[in-house]
């Protein structure tokens, strides 16, 4: 029987390019049945978008990048380690691993991040290990470019045969203004077109939807997530589309890392989203079944769930942990009434208090500010978070301090 009790997290020396960063045994849901999945985070050269622009404002993958090109031989060495652990897991489990996730903290179809030869080795590994599903990450822009030139995606679908190929896009939101706050590399048009391309070529499209990125309130984030999922359903015209919504947590070298340092009375003070917010998002879409879930399932670790929750300012730890277990039960058994029951445990007063917080400036004005800050941080060859830490005092009003700092800087004052 598939059980979260057997979850394993195997970590390696992040400085060694011949080893993956980690190989993790989790559970998943596939075609109505709970299954085991292996998630491998590769040692990598870093996202090209991050290297060129500083990356997305809420993304922490830059912290683990080795900042140099990873050779094919180094990737092959990492893949051998992944194979080894999948084989070991299968030997100890009642049911074999059926889903393989290979993440290079960037764009899988970008030749500057991972070569065609290394990608072919991933496909070979998935087939050799008898995986029913292979999952990778990329972005809409890469899919659109690939469709016009190399057709890596179409060739991969044929190469994988019966193995389902799931393409995960970091779309975060279908609201262009919210995406601008996050400094996403692809346009909303690229995202929409890429979904059609992925389905047309026989793969499964999945989108990451961000829950409460920097410079959004709890209420704004909840509304944006619900609207985004509804929009994705409309774009899909009844065809299958998966959604993994991701609650943002504290990550170094991100915009929200700095915003967490502000005074709690500051409108831009940032806190991780409430777990009960995630339940409210789920409760809007009882019909999506296994195609809608949250990345929090990856947090299941028998050694640390209580520590994980008590160390972060979500709902109070005891209530949060009870909610968390309800969420696990829902994920394994797909019972919508479990979500309803879980919401009855949630701290309603905390939700009501959190959603009363407002940011006075409209999102358009926040976007204008973020663009100026990004331009100046690049001009000074600094990460945005370091630029803010160097030039601002978190004890001061954030918006006023930024305006004073930027002065007469114009948006075309690029680095």
Description:
It contains 17 helices and nine strands. The protein has 415 residues and is of the alpha/beta class. Helix 4 packs across helix 7 (188-200). The model is unreliable at 298-304 (pLDDT under 50).
Give the topology, please.
Elements: E1 8-11, E2 22-30, E3 33-41, H1 48-53, H2 72-92, E4 97-103, H3 116-128, E5 133-138, H4 140-148, H5 152-160, E6 164-172, H6 176-182, H7 188-200, E7 204-211, H8 218-236, E8 242-247, H9 255-259, H10 275-283, E9 292-294, H11 305-310, H12 317-333, H13 336-345, H14 348-354, H15 363-379, H16 384-391, H17 398-406
Parallel strand pairs: 3-4, 4-5, 5-6, 6-7, 7-8, 8-9
Antiparallel strand pairs: 1-2, 2-3
Helix pairs in contact: 2-3, 3-5, 4-7, 6-15, 8-10, 10-13, 12-13, 15-16
| DSSP, total strands | 9
Widest sheet: strand order? 1-2-3-4-5-6-7-8-9
Overall pLDDT confidence: 88
Order of helices and strands: EEEHHEHEHHEHHEHEHHEHHHHHHH
The percent range for helix content is: 40-55%
Kindly name the structural category. Answer: alpha/beta
* Gap from first CA to last CA: 56 Å
Offer a few descriptive terms.
415 residues, alpha/beta, 9-stranded mixed beta sheet, 45% helix, 15% strand, globular
In short:
The chain has 415 residues and is of the alpha/beta class. It is 45% helix and 15% strand.
